[in-house]
Queue: 2 jobs
Job 1
Amino acid sequence: MIAAAVDLHVHSTASDGALAPSDVVALAADREVRVLALTDHDTLGGVDEARTAGRDHDVHVLTGIELSARYHGGQCHLLAWLPAEVPAGFRARIDELGELRRDRARLMVERLGTIGVDLSWEDVERVASGTVGRPHVAEALVRAGHADSRADAFARWIGEDGPAYVPSGKLDPEDAVRLAAEAGALVSLAHPRTLRLDDEALAGFVGRLADAGLGAVEAHRGDQPPERQAAYARIAARHGLLVSTGSDFHSPAREGRDPRRLGFVDGPGIAPDALDALLSRLPGAPAALAR
Ligand code: AMP
Ligand code: FE
Ligand code: FE
Ligand code: ZN
């Protein structure tokens, strides 16, 4: 693992991270991260706090979000780094998607009730400080004694084949890319591995997203071995896209067993010229880092 001066993929309590946005920034400062993007799942709720903390800690904090898109057989997440003045239309659309997520989680709670699993909406709200998702429903099921672990809750009730599963009203990948790109964002395909495609199919998928306005592929990640990083970078290059770098940090408590450590990337990480190209296209980022 190498320390990185730029970390464009981190989570806070505004979604499923363990640290408050200001604490994420303080940790980044400790690790000498110079440019940090807060990218919580489907919310900009932590960004103002993080940007304020960034001014105190001398860290460039960028406005980011990780959009979940509709995708079968894996996960499709898109990182969007936005201008500091986020267009009102984009904010409104994100708020609307958050509302839909709440309605959907409520529906799952109702379905659980009809099959005799007694959980209240308040039980779910208590564990969700930001956008609500199945991990929160799973945690509430564990706390209410209905499941031994979150994984158990997914396996028995809310996994895609589970009796209480309700699909979320997510955007299609191309629509998500368009929405963010039209708001002035640079958009990157997060952790391509979770699409569960071979490299040829992945290249095809990336090509379609590129036509919709995708700008980058997250090739350099905390948890990806060097040969995978190189393969993703090749796919990005095939479509004339940038590569992005980020840890996907969620929690310091997990850092011992989780390679997603704030400010660290496995292997050689992003090349200096690729980093310069990325910085030059990132809204609100310094044009270059002193080396
Ligand atoms: P949602 O977007 O609300 O449908 O929640 C999806 C999230 O649930 C994913 O990002 C994972 O973090 C988590 N998840 C999905 N499947 C499982 C599983 N079988 N066990 C534990 N967590 C899961
Ligand atoms: Fe997450
Ligand atoms: Fe993700
Ligand atoms: Zn993430």
Note: Residues 9, 11, 66, 248 surround zinc ion (ligand 4) (CB under 6 Å).
Job 2
Amino acid sequence: MRIVHIAAEMAPFAKVGGLGDVVGGLAKEMAKEHEVEVILPRYSFLKFQTFSMKYQNFQCYEKGTLHENIALQIIYDNINLSFIEPHNEISYFNRSNIYGYSDDNPRFIYFSRAALEYLLKKNNSIDILHIHDWHTSLTAVLYKDLFQNLGLKIKKIVLNIHNIEYQGICAKWDLDRIGLMSKKYLSSTLSQQKAFPTNKINLLKCGITFSDAVIAVSPTYAKEITTKQYGYGLERILKENKDKLYGILNGIDNNIWNPQIDPNIPYHYSSNSSAEKIIEQKQKNKDHLYEMARLNPSHKPLICNIGRLVPQKGPALIEQAIFTTIKNRGQFILLGSSMIRKIKKQFSNLEKNHHLRGEVSFNFTYDEVLSHLIYAASDFIIVPSLFEPCGLTQMLALRYGTIPIVRKTGGLSDTVFDIDDKSFSQEKINGFTFERFDKDAMDKTLHRALSYWYNEKQKIFRLIENGVKTNHSLEKTAKEYLQLYKQLINS
Ligand code: ADP
């Protein structure tokens, strides 16, 4: 099959969260047996010194003019990677971050059209075009209403929803400027943003209505987004399109995330190690971490949280978890970055609390290397999300023998099975879960986890051993996608 992904992120080049991991991981797995190309913006922070590069020029329409673009092409892990650099008067990708600009809509709308212009110029027929989130959703519309007529050949278009909260609500003009007649899409069954004001276009909705299949990143999330609580206004259109809605659980790259050989951690262990051995190695990794993270050396259980500090991740519950941990003879390490001033302030105020000094480590940065060491040193990870499309941190934690304590939602529900839930077998249980998104529910569960830690070690051993044996590999995920691709092509 010839598969093309168009995305805003791809690890290890450009990553903010799980989207980058999954695009990178899926492309790599699929490229083992298929011809795979990934098209990304050429962000100015990307460096390519070690790659041999090729360039291709092409033009792209915007605001009545054809603009020059350069596609920089490299081969990485058997994937044909193309980075598009537009040369219009505004530098769309010559910025220090991937997102967070007032012109994010025009930036990614232009990129969506430019990616198709580039594919048209290359003139290869494509079996599957795989687009991701709102950033590249418009390519489905552009293909069906424009580029198909220009001669671009794509058999099926698949849209991945990694997070429905972000939808790309734009003005009509944003579509007109790249050559689409926005009027045509202002209908509630196509792409109109339902919420007031009503003359706005919803880019993710464009992707949902114009793609041949819509895939949420976990089976539970696929169901949840058809409800008012989780659909963020798109529940109705998803229900109307339920015949093409699927849920495929994300996975992790077991080669990069392997505690047996991970170069970022000093003390290793494997999925065959006993829980006692894993705890022993974790303690040595902790000893390594204590100084770096300004924590008092101890034998207390270490609880971590790694992630973007945004409302979705439950910052108030994370704060509560810090206090509950300390009260229950544990230590806490937080690794999180946030673009939201209020949340940043909440945690930096907490950092000033001298009662927490030496018992809680705050790290407000994005640090991939440190994250490996934290997964390898921690005993528990807490993920109290309001919603979680899939969640990778709990899967990484399981692989590193770190017991997850999570709210039962989305992919967390599909991957964490509570020790006290009698419906799960002894082979399946691997963590602690709670239902309600409130401090009390979280507190009780964290308390329960810590009391198991101090009083029932054999049960903790079982959770660790079940966790490290779980296989959430991207290889498995990629196989499911490929199977669906085949089914779509043959339908
Ligand atoms: P989301 O996609 O909502 O950000 P996921 O759990 O799906 O959340 O994926 C988060 C990914 O980003 C994981 O690989 C996690 O380890 C990584 N990550 C998140 N925040 C940080 C950080 N501050 N430093 C290092 N890695 C991080």
Note: Residues 17-19, 21, 306-308, 335-337, 366-368, 371, 390-393, 396 surround adenosine-5'-diphosphate (CB under 6 Å).
